Amino acid sequence: MEVNLRCGLLGERLAHSYSPQLHAMLGSYGYALFEVPPEQLGVFLQSGSFDALNVTIPYKKSVIPYCAELSETAQKIGSVNTLLRRADGTLFGDNTDYDGFLWLLQRNGGILPGEHAVVLGDGGASKTVQTVLRSLGARVTVLSRRGERGFDALKEQTDAVLLVNATPVGMYPHNGERLIDLTGLPNCRCVLDLIYNPSRTRLLLDAEVRGISCENGLAMLVGQAKRAAELFTGTGIPDSRCEEILCKLNAQMQNLILIGMPGCGKSAVGRLLAERLQRPFFDADAEIERELGCDIPTFFAQYGENAFRTAETKVLERLGKGSGSVIATGGGCVMREENYPLLHQNGKIIWLRRPLDRLPKDGRPISQSTDLRALYAVRRPMYERFCDAAVDNCGTPEETVASILNEEVTR
Q1: Which of 68, 281, 324, 349 is least crowded, fewest Cβ atoms below 10 Å from its Cβ?
Q2: Other beta carbons within 10 Å of 291
Q3: Is residue 262 reached through a cis peptide bond, with omega within 30 degrees of 0 on the bond before it?
Q4: CATH number for region 99-216
Q5: How far apart are CA 181 and CA 176, in angstroms?
Q6: Angle separating helix axes 296-303 and 305-321, nearest 10 degrees
Q7: In the prediction, which pLDDT does 1 show?
Q8: Is residue 60 annotated as a catalytic residue, yes or no?
Q9: What distance in Å separates the CA atoms of residue 184 and residue 163, rounded to the nearest whole number?
Q10: How far apart are CA 396 and CA 37, in angstroms?
Q11: CA–CA distance, 160 with 180 (Å, rounded to integer)
């Protein structure tokens, strides 16, 4: 029966939706994308050409008048993200975003009755977050640009243990933006950001630096899809399946970024790794040369290292915003601390190590003008600081790629 279900996602623009991929991993029912203009919404909903739908912006409120009944959760939140066509042809509206945020919260330690949470934003996502938190007995303070309390009121929330960003601030392509400084929340033990592109917003990067538990909104997306699939099929799905899906999506979305000394094999290994994973490959030095309009040694000779590093940071900023790629960096990119968040925001950083006596110097201005041992002594602490994993590149590129593809490295 499940395979005969006609399900899908209703919205206005859906080209970049993860929903079809998610639901393919959750069940064997059909799942289509329904891009419907506002003036045709009523006709579509009344046509009866579907059994169940997920609903995304801008229609989470617009579908409510077409529902014969709403779940208690949908009534509390004031929006619907799941529609079920009942046997009599009428529509039942529910909201599984509630379940998605609850799972995200529980994965990060939850919240106790009476504890204080701060929510940034007062839009639809914020309403869901507030409903979940209040159902658990938490005290909730909402900060927003147009609400009763602005973001500058953060200084009054010093006892808050949880911060949730329910705004789009920091979302691609506006990576690096943030609304607040976490120094205003000295007792905060957890930061959740509903954004999942980039994987680590500036807010989450700040939380990492401070040692605060944090996570993006991808788990919420998976959790709400899981609950929707259960409603579609009438069959329960274990949380362990969601963990598997979340792990798979994270691995697919993250960049794999290679760092290491000049000549350690980043480009050769990176190309082969991208080929094996069927991902785009970017060589940062080649991208820099394309933007500069000349080769790196020539630019170095004319303008010096500082100008080159500035150009390099600009390229890394662009490459780091993408996702699902393999990126080979220049050997000295680690010497600018500002490059770390640009690479880390969407990537797993892998340090390729090779003995110094096996590093070629041709076409590498700094390697030619500096003692490699002295250069390595300076850079090694930064490679260690930047990397999430280290892999020796002492054999063939194929052997090194096999090591990188080890689950412990790429997961």
Answers
A1: 68
A2: 12
A3: no
A4: 3.40.50.720
A5: 13
A6: 130
A7: 42
A8: yes
A9: 11
A10: 54
A11: 14
**Domain limits, CATH 3.40.50.10860, in the chain:** 2-94+222-240
- Decide: residue 19, CB within 10 A, 0-12 exposed, 13-18 middle, 19+ buried: buried
Phi, psi torsion values for 53, nearest 5 degrees: -140, 145
**Within 13 Å of residue 175, how many CA atoms lie on the same side as its CB?**
22
Instruction: Please give the class, per CATH, of domain 254-410.
Output: alpha beta
* pLDDT of the residue at 409: 63
Total-model pTM? 0.92
Ramachandran sector of residue 260 (left: φ over 0; alpha: ψ -120 to 50; beta: rest): left
Q: Where in the chain is the domain with CATH 3.40.50.720?
A: 99-216
pLDDT averaged per 10 residues in sequence order, the chain, 411 residues:
80 89 92 94 91 94 97 96 95 98 97 98 95 98 90 94 97 94 95 96 97 97 97 94 94 96 95 97 96 90 92 97 96 96 97 90 62 91 96 94 79 60
3-state SS track over the chain: CHHHCEEEEEECCCCCCCHHHHHHHHCCCEEEEEECCHHHHHHHHHCCCCCEEEECCCCCCCCHHHCCEECHHHHHHCCCCEEEECCCCCEEEECCHHHHHHHHHHHCCCCCCCCEEEEECCCHHHHHHHHHHHHCCCEEEEECCCCCCCHHHHHHCCCCCEEEECCCCCCCCCCCCCCCCHHHCCCCCEEEECCCCCCCCHHHHHHHHCCCEEECCHHHHHHHHHHHHHHHHCCCCCHHHHHHHHHHHHHHHCEEEEECCCCCCHHHHHHHHHHHHCCCEEEHHHHHHHHHCCCHHHHHHHHCHHHHHHHHHHHHHHHHHCCCCEEECCCCHHHCCCHHHHHHCCEEEEEEECCHHHCCCCCCHHHHHCCHHHHHHHHHHHHHHHCCEEEECCCCHHHHHHHHCCHHHHC
* Residue 4 confidence (pLDDT): 81
Q: Cis ω on the peptide bond leading into residue 37 (within 30° of 0)?
A: no
What is the pLDDT, as a whole number, of residue 353? 96
Q: Fold for domain 2-94+222-240?
A: Rossmann fold (3.40.50)
Q: How far apart are the first and last CA of the chain?
A: 35
